């Protein structure tokens, strides 16, 4: 589904501005405009379109100044109707004509009362009232200023045109007067200094009195020429809406019934480059309305995302309530003024959450249960720290912003509207990793400056002081100096936290490098986190750091230099100067639509260039141990498994690095014994600390970065999440048979047995396919045929954008789908999988594409749009348009992928289908391809050498002896 | 009868091997009766006296009719050498560098292996083109290891070459670059241009360059058995990097003049038993020396184990991920659990190292000398093929050694 791409073509937005005109229409016209015969008729470009209310005629204005008329819906050109410029010019007075062309057609407007009359505005300023039936210019309005747009007053007695110089003029239409020389009035609202053009103007009458005037642009060129503004004016009320992105178009929702005397605008809908903003025009003060859909995902750039399947109803309800409390502070309560059709999709079987982390330190919670992502709740982590803003000020509430209040007094009366704000106050606040425990309502959010925040859900507002624990990951390394950004300053005094997730404790990693991995085990009250320097383990219940381990290669001094990316000054003034630079003086003129021919030329030119440029070379070298960034921790995870020996399991922590190292720690968690979770509480618990003992270190020979680590139980299934087993929410893991650990590196997938780490199965993906693993997830595929049958599968997204599915633990390739374009690096990097075989990735900074690898779990837009106009010549049943797919840019690949998934996936229901290797159902036999790969791992015990092994033996014997001794005693 | 009376003219030179920068030669020419010294030992002593090097441990080699350098270290091949003289017999004497004591214990077999290696070096350095190369390092025999080989000569078309590069253990960079390009294919429809991947550059002193088997503009057809057609440059790069420890590339050499012809390879592969065939001798050497090498190597290998550094892992095949076990990690809370469950603990622990050594398969890198003697004229190739054989034993011996050390660790 489309979530927020507002960069629509201009033509489409023009049509959008027509009241009640539905999206179905522009889509059809856009496709037909490409007809070659149409293009050949007019070599000039289309500048403006007008569909008459009767819906039988489309007027097309062109850059050459001609107006063409097309019959609707056949879209055949009415040859004899075409109005070329010279038909107008001959009737002009000589002094106005002065030999110049009238310029492109800038505006076409139908007379509101008399059908068959249209107002044609030419760029030079001339406006013509054209009678279509008799093909005659009824009136001429000899404007002198370059024209930008036209709008009728409802009665048809007046029209308003806006100009290039930032002014607008009102013309009276009085019958009989064929040639008007002067407008009734002419105003430059933000004069007298030079102003920018008013690109569009609307004039809406109200019963109450003076008309509402709405126009975009017109700002004083020197001081505010870079703002994206829209002005609403009625009498003394004057508001300049200040947007963060370019205004593409806007329209009002008002009464369209002919019999009504006044427009009575109820809402203003503004389409911006990055978002859609709706202003309530009926409530005094013109507040904005929250959008129920089309909320901009990227109000601040998305830095990470996290998906939570089957959210417990309790948590869901509390989140919704917290979100409602937030919204009520900023928005009006009036209902959404736009009817966008009916949703036919059945209510979702389970609630799903998508969490997006943003550059400005916010985490947004989206309802991802259905097709549209709906904002639920927004968490800001900025107020945990002392930032440049006033510490007491709540950053979530723009009305408190001192900046705003200051601006309130200046002229023009700016008001910041919309939530798209690409400029982060402090890039260190950016969210890097999120982990949520849906059963305990604990959330861990980790950011760019090494901050790891543990939050708990609370329904009450609270003012409290947040503890900060510092974990120095380099405590045992001397001589390293961090040259990157500073850590974020903790607040010195208690801060107010609104209902929702409230911080419990902050763990600050030192050096404050960006957090690269995070894991939460709410049952053990532990969080693990990793940065480019090492990883740590923190007990948030007892508020103490359990472990800090440096993973840096001793020679790796480069990692200490800090992030290679920006370390910018964070002052607000700088931010604003950026804003100014960004906006060029050229306010987006519409004439830059690339035609297909120019694209071909571009491609040809690119090809020609390619041949001249020396070919790209790639060096072939094995990965070396001391590559920079080798110490970056790529993943951390918790597991209750067998690390020490084959009979006793217990809490373990696993961490994998960029250089193919895996560290496994055995944890002593008070109350969590070997295999049994003891009842919490009791005096002893608080006194005992969690301990971590290094158990194993695995160095993958190929040294590729470890992407993911997952422990598999005795049946080869991934271990359930914390609480799932203990609260009977999932099938308890098999603790009787030997466990294994799946380590996915960028190059290989490997399953090792536990506790003795020896390779059982592996798949060398890179060696076979030449692709590298980017994302890995354990996914449950349910059968469409059999209700109770499901399989655990490893899904693996590669740098080529394709999905490989592997059975576990056999690591047998099952299927492969193309999914993301391989050039779409940010798309691949943003991909997140759900538990049941779906996934999301960003196809643009503002849009998630949702895909499904599972035939069972589909999320498709099932909806219809009711049409009350006879637009469609082809009777599409009862006017019901069901769009099975409304996707944008990746139709081919996605279509392919989804097309394949429509069939029952071969791995589930039918073993005969196109599995590349052999029947996946016979997971047990390992006779085919992977046996060639299957080799016994060369395991070397470095620490357990001769003496140590003997010592171990001795120790065991001694302990045995002791224990028996105790028994005897 | 005639042979009995003819004498041999023997030319030899002496080289210092231990210090490779020095290269001083001494030539002696003398006559010898065909039935002169009865056996190898006598001959050996004779040479020592002639050169005034009594007590210096040397290795002997001779050039046979094919121009190959073959060892003299027992009566049998001594007689063979004598018989092959017509009438000139070139003997090459190489001073054996100081060996660790352990090598001395089994001098006869050790010598055999060492000779194989040194003779190779001698050929290489003797040839004019390598003489000109100043930077060529010549290492002591134990440092020789296989770095490359041509494989599958008999199944590949003549225009293709399959090269195996052994990265393991060497500090040398793999040392080549690849690029995109256009390859011309002849199809039934005519000549067709298809995108291809080519070697664009060889790094000076790198492994790829030093083998002489890969050249700039060679088209890469396969990487470790996987066709690269249709794959992007980045994909091929990733595949090569992923296989870099044991890279097998099939190339279509830009220079087709040095190609191995089928007929030739067939005969040598067949090990037809011709006396001077490098193939037969080479393989004999490698098979023979396997067991002694495994005995003689533990010192070096166990050193690296003791160090436990990551470079040691590099010697390994890809299979050998390094697993470090922490000895302070006691079996699971044996102090808490008071029942008999500690028994299995101990068992599993003590069993652990044992089972590591069990069932280790033969390394995949066993390269049978199918390629040996493929091109006798091309000295560079010959070096590599020779190298292949003898150093293969090194690597396999290290592996068997590792098992040894593990066993002793128990």
TrEMBL record, chain A:
Region of interest (Disordered), residue spans: 387-411, 869-912
Chief localisation class: cytoplasm
Single annotated GO MF: myosin II binding
One Pfam family hit: Lgl_C
WD repeats: 353-367
Annotated Gene Ontology cellular component terms: cortical actin cytoskeleton; endomembrane system; plasma membrane
Domain Lethal giant larvae homologue: 187-287
Subcellular location: Cytoplasm; Endomembrane system
GO biological process: cortical actin cytoskeleton organization; establishment of spindle orientation; exocytosis; Golgi to plasma membrane transport; regulation of establishment or maintenance of cell polarity; regulation of Notch signaling pathway
Keyword Phosphoprotein: yes
Taxonomy, superkingdom: Eukaryota
Ranges of residues in domain Lethal giant larvae (Lgl)-like C-terminal: 741-856
Keywords assigned: Cytoplasm, Exocytosis, Membrane, Phosphoprotein, Repeat, WD repeat
InterPro entries: Lethal2_giant, Lgl_C_dom, LLGL2, WD40/YVTN_repeat-like_dom_sf, WD40_repeat_dom_sf, WD40_rpt
Compositional bias segments (type: Polar residues): 874-899
Family: Belongs to the WD repeat L(2)GL family.
Protein name: LLGL scribble cell polarity complex component 1
TrEMBL record, chain B:
One BP annotation, GO: establishment or maintenance of cell polarity
Protein name, as recorded: Par-6 family cell polarity regulator alpha
Entry annotated with the keyword Cell division: yes
One CC-aspect GO term: bicellular tight junction
Record's compositionally biased regions (Basic and acidic residues): 399-410
Record's compositionally biased regions (Low complexity): 268-286, 384-398
Organism encoding this protein: Neolamprologus brichardi
Keyword Cell division: yes
Domain PB1: 7-96
Main localization of the protein described in the UniProt heading: other
Ranges of residues in domain PDZ: 162-255
Record PANTHER family: PAR-6-RELATED, PARTITIONING DEFECTIVE 6 HOMOLOG ALPHA
Keywords carried by this UniProt record: Cell cycle, Cell division, Cell junction, Cell membrane, Cytoplasm, Membrane, Tight junction
Region spans: Disordered: 119-138, 252-410
Family stated for the protein in its record: Belongs to the PAR6 family.
